[in-house]
Amino acid sequence: MILTADDSAIAQAAQALRDGHVVGLPTETVYGLAANATDDAAVAQIFVAKGRPADHPLIVHVASAAQVPVFAAQVPDFAQALINAFWPGPLTLILPRQSGVATASAGGQDSIGLRCPSHPVAQQLLRACAALGVQGVSAPSANRFGRVSPTTAAHVQSELGQDLLILDGGECAVGIESTIIDCTRGAPVLLRPGHITRVQIEAACGRPVLDKEAVAQAAPRASGTLESHYAPRAKVRLMAAQDIEAKLQALGPHANNLGVWSAVRPDAGAGVLWRAQPSSAEQAAHNLFSVLRELDARGVSQIWVQLPPDTPEWEGVRDRLQRAAA
Ligand code: TXA
Ligand code: MG
Fold first, then answer.
1. 175 lines ligand 1 (CB under 6 A)
2. Under CATH, which architecture does the 235-325 domain have?
3. CB contact at 8 A, 306 and 263
4. Are 2-222 and 235-325 the same fold in CATH?
5. Is 27 in the pocket of ligand 1 (CB under 6 A)?
6. Domain 2-222 has what CATH class?
7. How confident is the model at residue 232 (pLDDT cuts 50, 70, 90)?
8. Domain named YrdC-like: which ranges (predicted)?
């Protein structure tokens, strides 16, 4: 059930969360599937609904930095600088976890992912939850495990069904998931690129950002970091613009059931569905998941995507595309 996120719908959702139910929630990045972070039984429902392995930890969303000590045992100086610079906003910090808190959400880690979203509906819901004693809300992206993240309430409903209460807060402005920085290793480590770039992170905390490959890891701790993720049904292929054009020329009238997301409209027939790839990384991020979903829904067998430039502002989009294509 999709509800326009007015005051009464937000109050209803807060009560549902307090009572141990799950709720679909808009954020500025993507929609989340939310449950009370400290209610292990409620959190377990998220894993079931998504089909997500229980050892993949969830991000806890808080109304403000004041709730950080509820979940985190310690905040290094560089992490505090990032909180000051970017919260509320699309940045998740992995911090040492308070022992015994949000155990199911942490998926077996002794750390916890914390994020303070800026979307006004998420903010209002988290404050309403706090007033009911719910100090944080665990919310992974509201898609089935491994699939494309949802950026509208309708996407959430098509992923998770009619029965779920979903707050409709419109289209997500950012369109790709938050940047994740691991702050448990003595230096900032980039686990997942996003709208907030590594350049901005380095400027805000005055420290070089390390790559996760440079840090020894026992197990994959972020599903957003699995090689194959964000996958539509259609096969995604990343290609240079001139290769798209050349292959379409070679196929001629045999190019069918094909989606193309590229900057310049290719010269092709009706069997090729072209969607314009924006020239700004921000706009491309905003469109990315809905374009993949829309082409998928039209039944194309392949989606050819022009590989964006290898520059810092495109890192988040490139990352999602590379894993959609894996
Ligand atoms: O933008 C976002 O972050 C969205 C919205 C809903 O807030 N949420 C989101 O959640 O993308 P999810 O579960 O799809 O991705 C969270 C990522 C996962 O890859 C998870 O493994 C990682 O964060 N993560 C969470 N807690 C962690 C921890 N303690 N250590 C390492 N990675 C963690
Ligand atoms: Mg996800």
1. no
2. 3-Layer(aba) Sandwich (3.40)
3. yes
4. no
5. yes
6. alpha beta
7. confident
8. 7-196
